[in-house]
From TrEMBL, chain A:
Keywords: ATP-binding, Nucleotide-binding, Transport. The lineage of its organism: Bacteria, Bacillati, Actinomycetota, Actinomycetes, Micromonosporales. The keyword Transport applies. One of its GO terms (cellular component) is plasma membrane. One of its GO terms (molecular function) is ATP hydrolysis activity. Pfam families: ABC_tran (PF00005). Residues 9-227 form the ABC transporter domain. It comes from the Bacteria. InterPro entries: AAA+_ATPase (IPR003593), ABC_transporter-like_ATP-bd (IPR003439), ABC_transpr_LolD-like (IPR015854), MacB-like_ATP-bd (IPR017911), P-loop_NTPase (IPR027417). Gene3D superfamilies: P-loop containing nucleotide triphosphate hydrolases. This is ABC transporter ATP-binding protein.
From TrEMBL, chain B:
The lineage of its organism: Bacteria, Bacillati, Actinomycetota, Actinomycetes, Micromonosporales. It holds the Pfam family PadR. InterPro entries: Tscrpt_reg_PadR_N, WH-like_DNA-bd_sf, WH_DNA-bd_sf. SUPFAM superfamilies: Winged helix' DNA-binding domain. It comes from the Bacteria. This is PadR family transcriptional regulator. It comes from Planosporangium mesophilum.
From TrEMBL, chain C:
Its main location: membrane. GO terms for cellular component: plasma membrane. The chain crosses the membrane at residues 31-51, 194-218, 250-272, 292-313, 334-352, 364-387, 415-436, 651-668, 706-728, 740-762. Keywords: Cell membrane, Membrane, Transmembrane, Transmembrane helix. It comes from Planosporangium mesophilum. It is a multi-pass membrane protein. It holds the Pfam family FtsX. It is found in: Cell membrane. InterPro entries: ABC3_permease_C. Residues 201-317, 653-758 form the ABC3 transporter permease C-terminal domain. This is Membrane protein.
Length: 229, 174, 773
């Protein structure tokens, strides 16, 4: 249904166990440039693990992940870190902002990690805070802002380095409906404007409705309607 | 659907011509099914007869659409009464989805397949509503959210039912 | 009322056990931390008994009480001859014993006197002789081992002691006749006020950081505890009950800590005999803490635990829904913190110039200790203020720096608390080092020996047998590692014509040696065998106005009369490697009449290659082969008071142990903090944060407070040092090198802590921490 060329990110037949429990048992996912893919399923089905594997945070026990033609498994930890720093962005459910840094500094962090000068990084970060409608809390610390504001700061941080893929793990999980809607609207808007693909892990259908396509995970296996040949 | 109360509500914000009234209604509540003119004027004349609206002014020219209607004090009271009155909860027990699940169970089919195909269908509509909501004004947002929450409720019920049935099937097999 | 108190305390104590795995770990960590501190305190409390035991046994085997008046030979007397040698850096203390009759005294630790040709040895010496290394010493102990010396005959467990039986020493000149061992009045003299001051300060400097450490240990896992208390508040406890419950918990871990400390101490002293501090080892039986002090520790530590906990809780509001820290609300005030050093100085200042460097006792020990404690404690008081003030102004820098400084800005209290231990130790260490360098200057003697020209001196007396200088030189030269050796024979003669006066007869020194040897002693233009020289120098033995003899001068040496050869030439005086100035007559062996001279003292000076293993042992063995009675000395350019060296070394060891202990608490708080932030760390890793960045931020986060602490410690330590130097009337000098040394050890501890916390950081950075939900 969506034909926008070859997939950017492909994970195929992924297996991953934590101790005796298999979190992934043959899951697959593919993401094309600029598309928003929802990963759905009941809690404990392996959604988050699929995201962690696809993003190169956790190496799978078996299976292959390729990003833009490169095998993630074949990369060193240093290379994968650099890839995540430059090409990926991340939003989690909670506890992701560094509590000691101001919101502006938090957003500037990925740029600074990649060697951008502080002044320049904070200038760009301020622009993103503005886009996500949280410019007013730039100099406050995460402990002093509301959950919805914090989550929008996190989205700004995830997008500040203009990633090609944004990984969002239950980004609205800790928010009420209104704030959740607002975060999703801003997130998808910003992602579409910068042609960033989004992998959106959620168990809420209303949140998944912001996607172009869904992948359902159950018991560590995926039912992807259109598996890539 | 009480078109009369909707008209009263629209007129309370400002007096309107019959044609404006129809357009405002279609925009907000029409959901792709615009009112017929006949329906509009039948309703207006019923409201006139009951003293809930009055003709505010008549512009020169001919044709019924030259009349401008305004709400009366009795009309305002009626709107208030209507808004304050709770709607009878409508339990869609005869829903087709429910029928399908029950039939699947009776015929020994899995509920998960129904869930999956229904979810992707629901999601298709929900995406459509989400898109309209993002592009539209407040009224669009409200109406789309209404639909979205209901669709989500369907899916959540379906998910729970599927999980229950799987659970039950597991117990039976053991 | 008391019933409620008790109930809450007991409930708190039970929480320490019942708090699940985390609660249990926290209790255990505190107990181990407090236990380590308590063990150190008990060790410190044992030091007096330790020295008393060593002193008592030293006095018990001392035989000098019999030496004063010569004893007549009887059934109950014993002839003893001291025999001392060295093995590597340890001295070997030996006595040759020859009983005059069956009632002869027996030294402590020995059942019966060894028979001629037999010896009894200390266990340490016996072990040494059984090893391959012992073969280097064995030739010098040509006796059959028949038994060992018991612990009551030894000062410490690793002492090398032997008693050998003999039937040949009676009648010699270098023997004593004694009728008993033991000299109650014997042993080392009382400490001089300067040394007493040092000891007082050492105790303060070592014990204070331990106190700080115990205080830090009691607060291990504070935040965890506060969260638990919040939960208890939620189910209906009021804030006073929460406080009492916390106190009960602290009491529980402190009591447990005291018990743990007792166990550590009890187990530790089993190994104490294997530990050498500054060349000193002690017997397990010597380590018994002063009972009063031990009781004080057992009571004070739990009391302090409760006090510290209640004090710490004053800065925290435990509400049912969580913990509110009040730290940020109140800016730390400076004035009361500055009162402490002012008070300390006020106590110490009147004593300036009042403590005699020699003579008398240290009368104001308590005043000195109190002043020093106040000055050092002020570091603990001022540091949080200083860190807070400085950290608030830090900005800019890289990501790691930013993360670290921002973290410190949010709350520097924990950091200050942990670092203050290090700062106190370093401040004390610096003060002590200053005191030490002054004392060292006062106690170190320049020997005048030139260790570049010769490193070993060997010598034999005339009674040691017929000694031929050429044989001696050849024997030593044959030892591997000896690069050169020269031997001189020293005669002292008198002018037969001169009349003895009240001040004694002028002594004429005559030195016989080869041309090479003479050139080491005096400035000689040219020389051949048969030549002789006169040197117009002071001469080592010529202090009593030795005349410079001229040609034809007659000199009586023993029974022989010798004439200074007519062909004698004048030479300029020089200094030999021992720093002695030659004077008198220098003659080559071929000079007329020299061959007829009697036996005399012979000295050989050697240059050695110190890289050759055990070259000194081979030289000692060669000397022993030539004559068992010769001596071998190693040359030193300076000589320190032995006791001084020991104190200095023990101080350094104590300081290192203290700093390591504090390093442990630094490590614990760092790990606690990392554990608390594991989710955040995992998120940062997901972002692609380099490990190095996080590692650096951990380093900065530790290093910034430590650097500030060290700076403050340097100021406080130098101040205390200056005051202490003023007290003993020494000029104030800053010993930059040793200040750097102490600070370096502290810095090394910080690096060590960071290095040790890195594996935990790497582990926590593993993305598994993301799956907490």
């Amino acid at each position: 249904m969506n034909d926008r060329g070859v997939p950017l990110l492909v994970g195929r037949d992924l297996h991953k166990s934590y101790g005796p429990t298999a979190a992934l048992d043959g899951a697959s996912i593919h993401v094309r440039a600029g598309e928003i893919v929802a990963v759905m399923g009941p809690s404990g089905s392996g959604k988050s693990t699929l995201l962690h594997c696809a993003a190169g945070i956790v190496p799978p026990d078996s299976g292959r992940i390729s990003y833009d033609g490169r095998e993630l498994n074949a990369m060193s930890d240093v290379e994968r870190s650099a890839l995540r720093r430059r090409e990926f962005g991340f939003v989690f459910q909670f506890g992701q902002l560094v509590p000691e840094l101001t919101c502006l500094e938090n957003v500037a962090l990925p740029l600074r990690l990649d060697g951008v000068k502080r002044r320049e990084a904070e200038r760009r970060a301020a622009g993103w805070l503005d886009r996500l409608e949280v410019a007013d809390i730039a100099h406050q610390r995460p402990g002093e802002v509301s959950g919805g504001q914090g989550q929008r700061v996190a989205v700004a941080r995830a997008l500040v380095n203009r990633p090609r893929v944004l990984f969002a793990d239950e980004p609205t999980g800790a928010l009420d409906s209104l704030n959740g809607e607002r975060v999703m609207r801003l997130l998808t808007q910003a992602a579409r404007e910068s042609d960033t693909a989004v992998v959106l892990v959620t168990h809420e259908t209303r949140v998944a409705a912001y996607s172009d396509r869904e992948v359902v995970v159950r018991d560590g296996r995926t039912r992807d309607a259109e598996l890539v040949a | 659907m009480s078109i009369g109360q909707a008209f009263l509500g629209l007129l309370e914000s400002q007096p309107r011509h019959g044609y404006d009234l129809k357009r405002a209604y279609d925009e907000r509540f029409g959901q792709g099914r615009p009112l017929h003119y006949g329906q509009v004027y039948a309703t207006l004349s019923r409201l006139l007869k009951n003293g809930l609206v009055e003709v505010d002014s008549v512009e020169p020219g001919d044709g019924p659409e030259r009349k401008r209607y305004a709400i009366t004090a009795a009309g305002v009271t009626d709107v208030e009464r209507w808004l304050g009155q709770p709607e009878k909860p409508d339990l869609h027990l005869q829903n087709t989805l429910y029928m399908k699940v029950v039939l699947a169970l009776l015929t020994g089919r899995g509920a998960a397949d129904i869930l999956d195909s229904q979810r992707s269908e629901h999601l298709r509509l929900m995406r459509e509503l989400t898109r309209r909501k993002t592009d539209g004004d407040l009224a669009d947002q409200l109406i789309c959210d209404y639909g979205l929450f209901h669709l989500e409720a369907d899916l959540r019920w379906l998910e729970l039912t599927a999980a229950r049935l799987d659970d039950l099937a597991g117990k039976v097999r053991r | 009322m008391t019933g409620r108190w008790t109930a809450d305390l007991i409930f708190g104590a039970r929480l320490g056990w019942a708090g699940g795995r985390d609660g249990w770990i926290r209790t255990a960590m505190t107990a181990v931390g407090v236990g380590l501190g308590v063990a150190m305190l008990l060790t410190a409390a044992s030091v007096p008994a330790m020295f008393q035991g060593r002193h008592d046994r030293g006095a018990a085997r001392d035989f000098s009480a019999s030496i004063g008046a010569p004893l007549a030979k009887s059934d109950r007397t014993l002839t003893v001859r001291r025999y001392e040698t060295w093995f590597r850096n340890s001295s070997v203390y030996g006595l040759e014993l020859q009983p005059d009759g069956p009632g002869a005294p027996v030294p402590p630790g020995v059942d019966r006197l060894p028979r001629p040709g037999e010896m009894v040895a200390s266990p340490a010496l016996a072990r040494l002789l059984a090893t391959p290394d012992g073969a280097l010493l064995a030739p010098r102990l040509p006796y059959r081992m028949v038994g060992s010396i018991g612990a009551d005959g030894l000062i410490g467990p690793d002492e090398y002691v032997f008693y050998a039986g003999s039937d040949r020493i009676a009648g010699r000149e270098d023997v004593y006749r004694i009728d008993r061992f033991g000299n109650p009045g014997g042993g080392p003299e009382e400490l001089s006020p300067m040394l007493a001051l040092l000891v007082v300060i050492i105790f303060v400097v070592l014990l204070l950081p331990i106190g700080v450490f115990i205080a830090a240990a009691i607060r291990f896992g504070d935040e965890h505890r506060d969260r638990r208390l919040a939960a208890i508040r939620l189910v209906g406890a009021d804030s006073r009950m929460a406080r009492r419950i916390a106190a009960g918990e602290a009491l529980n871990s402190a009591v447990l800590g005291v018990l743990t400390g007792a166990v550590f101490f009890g187990v530790g002293i089993q190994f104490v005999e294997r530990i050498t501090v500054g060349g000193i080892t002690v017997f397990t039986s010597d380590v018994s803490p002063d009972p009063v002090f031990a009781a004080l520790v057992a009571l004070a530590v739990p009391a302090a635990a409760v006090g510290i906990t209640l004090l710490a809780l004053r800065r925290v509001a435990i509400e049912p829904l969580g913990v509110v820290r009040r730290a940020g609300a109140t800016r730390r005030r400076l004035w009361w913190r500055l009162m402490l050093p002012v008070l300390g100085l006020a106590l110490l200042y009147p004593l300036i110039g009042q403590v005699g460097a020699t003579g008398g006792r240290l009368a104001n020990a308590y005043q000195v200790a109190a002043g020093a404690i106040l000055l050092l404690i002020s570091v603990v008081a001022v540091l949080p203020w200083l860190i807070e003030g400085v950290v608030r102004r830090l900005r800019g820098g890289g990501v790691a720096w930013q993360l670290a400084t921002r973290r410190l800005q949010m709350g520097s209290g924990t950091a200050a608390r942990v670092v203050s231990g290090i700062a106190v130790a370093v401040a004390g260490g610096i003060a002590l080092q200053m005191l030490f360098s002054a004392a060292a200057a006062a106690n170190t003697v320049e020997t005048g020996q030139d260790t570049a020209r010769a490193q070993v001196q060997a010598g034999f007396g005339p009674g040691d047998g017929p000694m031929d200088a050429a044989t001696i030189t050849a024997t030593f030269r044959a030892v591997p590692g000896v690069r050169s050796a020269f031997t001189v024979t020293q005669f002292y003669g008198v002018d037969p014509a001169a009349q003895p006066s009240a001040s004694g007869q002028p002594v004429i020194s005559v030195l016989i040696g080869g041309c090479g040897a003479l050139a080491e002693i005096a400035v000689i233009d040219h020389c051949a065998d048969g030549d002789a020289f006169v040197v117009n120098g002071r001469g080592e033995a010529g202090a009593q106005g030795a005349a410079t003899p001229g040609p034809g001068q007659r000199v009586r040496i023993g029974d022989v009369e010798w004439t200074v050869p007519a062909a004698v030439r004048p030479a300029l005086p020089g200094r030999d490697p021992l720093g002695r100035e030659a004077g008198g007559v220098l003659a080559t062996p071929g000079a007329p009449g020299v061959a007829a001279l009697p036996a005399a003292n012979v000295q050989t000076l050697m240059r050695v290659d110190p890289a050759v293993p055990d070259v000194y042992e081979h030289i000692r063995n060669a000397s022993f082969r030539l004559s068992p009675d010769g001596y071998v000395n190693l040359l030193q350019s300076t000589r320190e008071s032995d006791r001084f060296t020991t104190i200095r070394k023990s101080l350094f060891v104590g300081l290192v142990i203290t700093l390591l202990l504090i390093g442990v608490s630094l490590l614990v708080s760092m790990l606690e903090q990392l554990q608390e932030r594991r989710r955040l760390l995992a998120v940062l890793v997901a972002f692609g944060t380099r490990r190095a960045t996080l590692g650096w931020s951990v380093l900065w986060q530790t290093a910034v407070p430590v650097l500030l602490g060290l700076g403050l410690a340097a100021v406080a330590g130098a101040g205390l040092g200056a005051v202490l130097l003023g007290m003993i009337g020494e000029p104030v000098r800053f010993d930059w090198a040793s200040m750097a040394g102490v600070a370096g050890v502290a810095a090394a501890v910080v690096l060590l802590v960071t290095a040790l916390s890195l594996p935990a950081l790497w582990r926590l950075m593993r993305p598994e921490a993301l799956r907490t939900e």
